[in-house]
Amino acid sequence: MSFITLHSTKLRHNYKVLNQVFAQNKIEWAIVAKLLCGNEKFLQILLNLSDKEICDSRLSNLKTIKKLSPETQTIYIKPPAKRLAKSIVEFADVSFNTEIATLEALSEEAVKQNKIHRVVLMVEMGELREGIMALNLMQFYDEVLALPNIEVVGLGTNLNCLNGILPDEKKLYKLNRFKEIIEENSGEKIPYISGGSSVTIPLIFKNEIPFGINHFRVGETLFFGTNVYEDSLITGMYQDVFTLTAEIIEMQQKPNIPSGTAGTNLTGETPTFSEQERGKSSLRAIVDVGLLDIDHKDISAMIPGIEIIGASSDMLILDLGENSENLEVGDTIDFSMNYMAVLRAMNSDYVDKKVDGEMIPLLNTANEYLCLN
C-alpha cells in the first residue's frame, strides 16, 4: 500500500520560522488544518505545535479537533450552511459569515446552547468569492449587533483562492478603514482584522502590512514553505514536509510507443507519441498508486532521472531512465508533492498515513531570510 509521510520535525521548523515572523510584527495567527482532512494522527502533530487556534472548512474536522483538544479555539472559515447552525455553534467557537439569515440561525442556536458564538464578518475586496459588499457593510453590522448571543470579533477577507487576486497594501488599508468607520459609528470595538493568509506573508517582509491587520490564517506556507504571492519558495523553510511513497509492482523493458488502434483512455484522452520514439524502448516501472489517490501532474519522483509517463486508476507508470539506484520489484520510490497532491492523497482511504520524527538539519532562520530580502 502506498503511504504519505508527514515529517514532523520539518513541520516544527517551519512553524517556528513563521511564529518568529508573526511575533516580531505583533500579529496573531491560526493554523489552517483543512489539508489534513481530519486525520487524527496528523492533527495531533499540529496540536503539539500550537493548541491555541485551529481553522478548518469542514465541520467534521472541527469536531475531531474538539475531541482531541477541547480547549483549542476552533474557527470555521467558510460561510456556514444554515442547516448546520446547531453543529456550528457546538463545534466552532468562531465562524466566518456573510449572510444575515445564517447569522440569525446561529444566534437562535447560541441562545439554545447558552453560548456566545463569535463571528468574523468577511468583506468582499475584489476576489469575488465570499464577502459582504462594502456598501452594505455598515447596515449589515448593525443588524448583526442586534442578534442575541452573537459577538463580532473581527473583519476578514479572502483573496487569491478563486480569481487569483493578490492582496496589497491599499486593499488591506481599506479593510482597516472599514473597521475604523464601524467602530466610530457604533461605539463598539472590533478586536481583529483577519486580513492575512499564506499569500499575504510576503507583504510582511516588504513592510507593506498596514497597522491594524493583526490576524493571519496560514496553511500552505506552513506545510510547503511557499511564497504564494510570487509562486516561489521561502529561503529557510522546508518544502518537503510531506512525501508520498509507492512500491514497485512491475519493472520491465518495454517499447516507448504502444501498438494497435488507439481510442480514448479512462480520462477521455488519446495520447500522442513522437515517431522518433518508434523502435526504442525504456526500463519502465509500475507503482501502486493511481488516479484514485493522486493527480500524477502534481508529484515528482525524488530520484533524479525518473520520469512519470502516465497513470491509470490504481497504477502510476514510470520511465526509470538509467535506473541509477538499481531499483528492483519490491523497492519503493519517494515523490515530492504540491498542495493539491497532498489534499487528494489525504482524502484517499487507499493511501496510508505515517508520521516521521527523525532529526533534521536547521535551516536559515526567519531573521536571516528577512536580511536577504
From TrEMBL:
<dbReference type="Pfam" id="PF01168">
    <property type="entry name" value="Ala_racemase_N"/>
</dbReference>
<dbReference type="GO" id="GO:0008784">
    <property type="term" value="F:alanine racemase activity"/>
</dbReference>
<keyword id="KW-0413">Isomerase</keyword>
<dbReference type="GO" id="GO:0030170">
    <property type="term" value="F:pyridoxal phosphate binding"/>
</dbReference>
<protein>
    <submittedName>
        <fullName>Alanine/ornithine racemase family PLP-dependent enzyme</fullName>
    </submittedName>
</protein>
<keyword id="KW-0663">Pyridoxal phosphate</keyword>
<dbReference type="InterPro" id="IPR029066">
    <property type="entry name" value="PLP-binding_barrel"/>
</dbReference>
<dbReference type="GO" id="GO:0005829">
    <property type="term" value="C:cytosol"/>
</dbReference>
<dbReference type="InterPro" id="IPR001608">
    <property type="entry name" value="Ala_racemase_N"/>
</dbReference>
<dbReference type="InterPro" id="IPR000821">
    <property type="entry name" value="Ala_racemase"/>
</dbReference>
<feature type="domain" description="Alanine racemase N-terminal">
    <location>
        <begin position="8"/>
        <end position="225"/>
    </location>
</feature>
